[in-house]
Amino acid sequence: MGGLYVDGPGASFAGGRTVSVGRGRDGAFWTRTITGTTWTTDRLAWAPGPPPGVPSALRGRNVTRIPTTAKVAALTFDAAWDASGVASIRATLQRENAPATFFLVGDFTRGFPVYTNLLAGSGFRIGNHSDTHPDFTKISDATARTQVTAARTAIFNTGGAEPRALFRFPYGAYTASDVTLLNGLGYVPVGWTVDSLGWQGTSGGQTAAKVTARVLAAARPGMIVLMHVGANPDDRTTLDADALPAIIKGLRDAGYSFTTLDALK
Q1: How far apart are CA 225 and CA 72, in angstroms?
Q2: Which of 65, 121, 186, 231 is the most exposed place for a label (fewest CB within 10 A)?
Q3: Cβ contacts of residue 236 below 8 Å, gap of 6+?
Q4: What is the pLDDT of residues 52-62, one digit of tens each?
């Protein structure tokens, strides 16, 4: 098992026999039987199995909107290179009682474990955004599979949460065979209806007002909004975090409510 990260309550001062549960370095949950001050047996308690099958209506597709006629919108955030906007985004979402989905890269979870735990522990949905953010059109099927499974393990080990069976292709780059591969692994690929372009920063000609206007102009039932938690590497702006309050207000004023991507699993 490679050692437990966390033992259950009472394990360290067990008198007699105590059974504790912890997560091993393999991402699985183990029970440990402790007698006195020594442990005697480790047993596999639970390991994440493959994601459930993809609904037939969603197979072969990179989904860019939720299939509905209701005025609902899904706020989604990619977390890849930086965490500068996480605290502000989380505070806004919680203050406005707006659900959201965060697509995490494995490198992000390893580089920012505190923020990963913060997002997973705040009740937001967590999706898979690959392990190291490669262009899937330029890697082999074997490498693609590893990217997906390694990210899933990283998210689970770092955040303590089982990611949803939702995957977002890095750069939005994919082929039909990539979609088939993801479906075979049990994932629904999720794109977006509108990219806020906040990631371009002010150095790319964007402002919080432009980001807000772009999202509101794309409003339609079932829309999926793409934003990022990271700062622009050139000017260090976090325009998506800055624009989020106005985006939420503007969509609500237009009659929209917010939803998760649970309908896609």
Answers
A1: 11
A2: 121
A3: 84, 201
A4: 678 888 999 99
Q: ∠33-35-37 over CA atoms, to 5°?
A: 110
H or E stretch at 118: helix 113-121
Are 132 and 212 found together in one domain? Answer: yes
CB 226 within 8 A of CB 196: yes
Dist CA 188 CA 59 (whole Å): 7
The domain that contains 109 carries what CATH number?
3.20.20.370
Closest CA to 85 of 200, 244, 214: 244
Same domain? For 183 and 221 the reply is yes
- pTM of the predicted model as reported, rounded to 2 decimal places: 0.81
Tokens of residue 246, six digits = 């106005």
d(C-alpha 122, C-alpha 229), whole Å: 15
The count of domains in the chain is: 2
Q: What is the tens place of the pLDDT at every residue in 54-112?
A: 888 899 999 999 999 999 999 999 999 899 999 999 999 999 999 999 999 999 999 99
Residues 115-133 as b or e (16 or more Cβ within 10 Å = b): bbebbbeeebbbbbbbbeb
Q: Write the single-letter amino acid at 63.
A: V
Based on the fold, state whether residues 19 and 88 are members of the same structural domain: no
